[in-house]
Amino acid sequence: MYKILSLIAILFFSFFNDLKFAQAAYCNGKPSPNAQPNLNPIINEKPTFVKEIKNAKLYRIGTGDDSINVVHLWGTPYEMGFAHGTIVKQELTGLIEAFWKYMESEIISGINGTTKGFFRPDFLKRVADLGLDVALDIENAITERYTGTYFHDEIKGMSDATGIEEKKFRRIHLIGELTKGSCSMFGAWGSALPNSKGLLQLRALDWVVDGGLQNFPEITVYHPNKNDKNGHDFANIGWSGWIGSIQGYSSAKLAISEIGVSYPDESFGKESRFGTPFTYALRDILQFDETFNDAFNRLTKGKRTCNLILGVGDGKINKFNSVQYSASVANFMNDTTLKPEGDWHPKIKNVVYHGMDWLCPSFNEVMATQISKLYGNLTPENAIRDVTSIVQTGSLLITYYDFYNDVIYTANARGDNEHGPRNAFDRSFVKVNMTELFAEQPPTN
């Protein structure tokens, strides 16, 4: 079946490899001038054990409405997928069903023009012509050859445990390639930090806060078999059952950031549908790469797809680069080569930053101002209080990676039955010790 879909896809999408999408001038919107600092306390507590099964353990970290599942997985990709689908079956099933329902409603609204929606216009056209299931199956068919078999094995394990068909898992994991999200990032080191020690990295995800994802926050810690070629320990920071990486940190002290680009300039060149889905490429960095150079080689030599800004930090050498990313380019940028250039995006020594999009003066100006105010004293606590809350970025999910102390600070948007601020950047952050997570021992049963 996928061979047939692949042939259809080649005919249907071949023009994408030669297409430059329309270039917009600048992003819309700006931070509110009335934005307030985030004065909520940081939650710093040990994870609480909930239960264990074969190949998995479940903990809970945080307090009250600001708590997160922590799922540890061991074994082969299939075994980890099956254990994942078993130990949090209710949450995993709830996420898949809720997010699928949300996508269907957004498709209808987007095609009818009743809302702006969050899907790319070219994908909406495909759905109108072919239907949502077929359109996503075609996307899967044209990316399958660039996807490691371990993804399919893990999905099969989750499918066998939950009864949800494998196709549905695969369809949902391609949504990141097809939507229009805005996000932010920075990396800071040296003189930007107290005592010039370490590396601090931000990944702020601005995406839908009412699509169901916000109800199922999870840190998934993978402990693959050490005698297999399945990589090393790493953590996905996201939601139950979401196995691509949108935020994450590895035992090799590599971390990732990402921004969807809706307002590129001509330097991005072409986009393509044929390549490795970016959430899979980012996960491969976390799972397999040992050094910054490994990640550099992966992104420059890989088969790339859509317009993005990626970020890679290496805490072993206190190095962070952002990456202008498309089918045409993989341009790594440091604090002296940072782009785009403009008065609204000033260079700051030992800092690389991007606010919300590529051509986005309003958010970048505020981010530069807030980082500059804290320069020399840029800590996770200070940045939580005075950077992301004032820039108003990280609505759905936000994580600060503190490499020097091997900890992360993360917050999730308000769930449907929860209280407090809606956006993650305004809520209490949970501090997580990554050294302890990666040292977790497998279950005894």
What features would you highlight for this structure?
single chain, 445 residues, alpha+beta, ten-stranded mixed sheet, six-stranded antiparallel sheet, 13 helices, disordered N terminus
- How many β strands by DSSP? 16
- Give the ordered list of helices and strands: HEEEHHHHHHEEEEEEHHEEEEHHHEEEH
Low-pLDDT segments: 1-23
Secondary-structure content class: alpha+beta
What does the overall shape look like? globular
Strand-residue proportion: 15-25%
Question: What is the average of the pLDDT values?
Answer: 89
Query: What helical percentage do the residues reach?
Result: 25-40%
- Helix count? 13
- How far is the N terminus from the C terminus? 40 Å
Q: Gyration radius, to the nearest Å?
A: 20 Å
